[in-house]
Each structure stands twice: as structure tokens, then as C-alpha cells.
Design goal:
- With about 80 residues, the chain is of the alpha+beta class.
- The chain has a domain of about 50 residues.
- The chain has a three-stranded antiparallel beta sheet.
- Strand 2 and strand 3 form a beta hairpin.
- Helix 2 packs across helix 3.
- The longest helix has 10 residues.
Length: about 80
Amino acid sequence: MKKKTGRRGVPDREAAYPLHPMPDCTVLEAAALMRCSPSTVYRLINAGEIDAYKRGDRTLIDGESILALKERNRIKPGEFPEAVA
């Protein structure tokens, strides 16, 4: 049987949400997706970089805002300086 959780117990995205490209997620899930710490996710929320809302005592992050953050910070060809050996 296939393992249903990945790193830090985050549910497997494809198994949990097969049709939606980027569902809303918790702070811990967002941190795992962006490969950063939960405190960095909170810092991005406070800076207005990603959208979040509360449902009960949980903070949920808008999945589309994570994709938008990645797109805003994408390095385009020719923008990154050449490495000097």
C-alpha cells in the first residue's frame, strides 16, 4: 500500500486533492511545499506576500497565493549573474 504522508506528516497532494491544482493548506503544509520553516510562512503572511485566513484556530493559506509568490520570485533566463570560478 502506498504511503499517504510525506515529509513531516504532510498528506500526499495527489491523493488528497486530485482535481484542484493548488488547494488551501495549513502553515505546516505551506512550509513543506515552499521548503522553508513555519516561521517564514508567518513572516510572509505578515508582510502581505501570501494570503491567509483563519478557520477556527487554524491558519489556512490560499494555495493560489503560494503559486503567485513563486511566480513573482522566479528567476528568468539572463537575470542571474554568472558564477565566477
